[in-house]
Design goal:
This protein is an alpha+beta fold. The protein folds into three domains: 7-49, 2-Layer Sandwich (Uridine Diphospho-n-acetylenolpyruvylglucosamine Reductase, domain 2); 60-170, 2-Layer Sandwich (Uridine Diphospho-n-acetylenolpyruvylglucosamine Reductase, domain 3); 176-272, CO dehydrogenase flavoprotein, C-terminal domain (Enolase-like, domain 1), CATH 3.30.390.50. Helices cover 30% and strands 25% of the residues. A five-stranded antiparallel sheet has the order 4-5-10-6-7. Strand 2, helix 2 (33-38) and strand 3 (46-49) form a beta-alpha-beta unit. Helix 5 runs antiparallel to helix 8 (121-128). The longest helix has 23 residues, at 250-272. The protein is globular and about 55 Å long. The mean pLDDT is 92.
């Protein structure tokens, strides 16, 4: 199939983009959007490409206390970045399992998040990393929103005629993480995916594919409790909000989530003591 007719616009700066944003569907790399348009799963009347906006960056840099991922940084950029490799290697574990190399060369980290699929690899890994999004509105004013408040439904987020300009990840000492997923075939979208990130003060567990928005659980690990046992007991308490579809029942998703969570929590724990 082919997409229906639409208007294509490619603004050169943020002010122009935000003037055109009402009624538009935003595209950066388009690796999720274009296939959905071709299948008529998404109907677009106006397509707004942000790839040529001068103020948007493809850089991944470390600033005082955090890592900044620009809106145009691709998954390949993330995979080759030494800062991420040293400070948040679980993000690279997640990015490595997105599509093939051609997809990763075009797909952006921010685009993967803004697509707002609850199984999106980068969303799950970034949620466990306590990341936030910097958002700019039509008055060119910026605000920072925690990713925990970003998702509001299946492929729906909190953006209201706004753009995400960067993702911010806090840098913490002695932090360790792991990402794993289960998919029906290689390069397919995960059925359930899990990321755990732990430091001396807390552990965050993000789970995708079980609900219409990602599930995020947190524990204060400074008390010294067994956080693997704690999280494995917490996950079943959310069973009533899990989804059932053609790919599996909510009970099946629960079993997958528990199994993968145990693996990533154990892996994260072992890395912490290496």
């Amino acid at each position: 199939m082919r997409p229906g007719p639409f208007i294509y616009q490619e603004p050169e700066n943020l002010a122009q983009a935000l003037r055109l944003i009402e009624g538009a569907t935003i595209m950066a790399g388009g690796q999720s959007l274009i296939p959905s348009m071709r299948l008529r799963q998404v109907v677009v009347s106006k397509l707004l490409s942000i790839a040529s906006i001068s103020e948007l960056s493809a850089n991944i840099i470390e600033k005082e206390g955090y890592i900044e991922i620009g809106a145009l940084a691709t998954l390949s950029d993330l995979l080759s970045n030494q800062i991420v490799k040293e400070s948040a290697p679980w993000l690279q574990e997640a990015a490595q399992q997105v599509g093939d190399i051609q997809v990763r060369n075009l797909a952006t980290v921010v685009g993967n998040v803004c697509w707002s699929d609850p199984r999106a690899n980068m969303s799950i890994a970034l949620l466990a990393s306590n990341a936030s999004a910097t958002i700019i509105n039509q008055q060119l004013k910026e605000k920072i929103v925690s990713l925990r408040d970003f998702f509001v439904g299946f492929q729906r987020n909190c953006l209201q005629h706004e753009l995400v300009t960067k993702i911010i990840i806090p840098c913490r000492k002695a932090v360790f993480g792991s990402y794993q997923e289960f998919s029906r075939q290689r390069n397919d979208l995960a059925l359930v995916n899990v990321c755990a990130v732990s430091c001396d003060t807390d552990t965050k567990l993000a789970i995708g594919g079980t609900k219409n928005i990602p599930l995020v659980l947190e524990m204060d690990t400074s008390r010294g409790d067994n956080y693997v046992k704690y999280f494995l007991n917490q996950i079943p308490q959310h069973l009533n909000s899990f989804i059932t579809d053609q790919y599996g029942s909510k009970q099946y998703r629960l079993e997958l989530a528990i199994t993968i969570a145990k693996r990533v929590l154990t892996a994260s724990r072992s890395k912490k003591h290496e």
